[in-house]
Amino acid sequence: MEDLIAKLHPHEKKILLVLSKLNIATPLDISKESGLSLDAVNKAGQWASIKGLLKIEKERKRRVELTEEGQRYVEEGLPEKRLLLMVKDGKKHVNEIRKQIANANIAIAWAKRKGWIKIENGVIEITEKGIKACKQIGEDEKALRDRKGSERVLKELEHRNLVKIIEGGRSLFMLTDSGKNIVKNISVSEEEEIGQITPDIIKSGAWKKKKLREYDILMPAPKIYVAKLHPYIQFLNNVRMKLISLGFKEVSGPFVELEFWNCDALFMPQDHPARSIHDMLRVKRPARGAVKDKNLLERVRLTHENGWITGSSGWGYFDVNKSIELVMRSQTTAVSARTLSKLKGGPAKFFTIDRVFRPDIVDANHLFEFHQAEGIVIGKNLTFRHLLGFLEVFGKEIAGAEKIRFRPGYFPFTEPSVEMDCMVNGKWLEVAGAGIFRPEVVMPLGIKERVLAWGIGITRFAMIKLKISDLRTLFTKDIDYLRDASMVI
Known about the structure:
CATH topology of the largest domain: BirA Bifunctional Protein, domain 2
Largest sheet: 7 strands, mixed
Helix content: 25-40%
Number of strands: 17
CATH architecture of the largest domain: 2-Layer Sandwich
Mean pLDDT: 87
């Protein structure tokens, strides 16, 4: 006990002594009695609570305040009740009511909702339920007048903006059994102690004449939460830095995109199922945009219609009006198409990590928006083996793969195509898809060199790296999760 008393801060001792007199007190009561500031009482109270000398209970209180409109209704009565009293002696036409009551629409809406009236051909007639209501004071009227009532009624009045419900509370400090025992041995007149060594105290030698307060280094200390990036943002930034270190340059594009860039420039047929409203979010206003490069639009049109000079037979048709419709970007390959159209030639390496949007039912595995990571490599004499080499580097550097394997794949705008699986933590995972852009894609864009294209399942990686099973956690604002989440390295 003596050892614990020796380690108590003077503020803790004052609080314990005050509580020995008051039994139960708020921080404000203790502040007035002890002469300590309110901040000092709260801080020292937490220390004493950690040491088991006092306990702190939260007393919750709720206050109901009238709004300006609510105060007016207390004086005049609820509009639906005033309407009811007007029609109790006979039918009234809606237009007549509107002339007599300023907020007639509100009155009619609530009277109908409560089943007090019915309206036929513009004439208001009171119901049996309404006749009974004329003779009674309703729950909402009582709650408005007394500023108290059931949770349901108060919430309804709050929804109508007639009251404000203000939640509040206060802390109550009280001694524990240990606190009651120890306070008996605390002297009221404690000699001044030094709890913090400063340069002035050392220079003056004051520390030699006063008692140094002991510290218990084993006592739990309050957590300090340092500022940090969202773990998902950390992960994406780390991937960015790895790609940049491999010589890739980051590019970006708009979220709202023309179908031309999102689909047509990638040689996706205009009747492809992925272009339906179920697979692509469409913009209503404005519904269309424009392709500034008319020569490019013409080359893409000819490629779709008859293959142009690519050696392809095309799809046999192309609707320019459909090409300029606006959609929410459904794939970041649209960024690759835009990037290629601005290039005069290779060699070059580009990547993008950004959001795409697709209609879906939100659950643990699906969202309306998610991230894609993909890129392109442009240069002369590039081969399929170069592509496999890039993928192998990605697997090791980004996924941390223990083993890598390749499988034949299919993607609409590449040929040949390949998929890469990586063994991570002893399990095979589908990680990336890639291929060589078809002539129907690169030739209309003015590119003569070969273009290697790749895409990484970045969201799947993030879930594995962050050890989460619900996709929604990647975008969470849950402060407890964000505070406790490990830093991503």
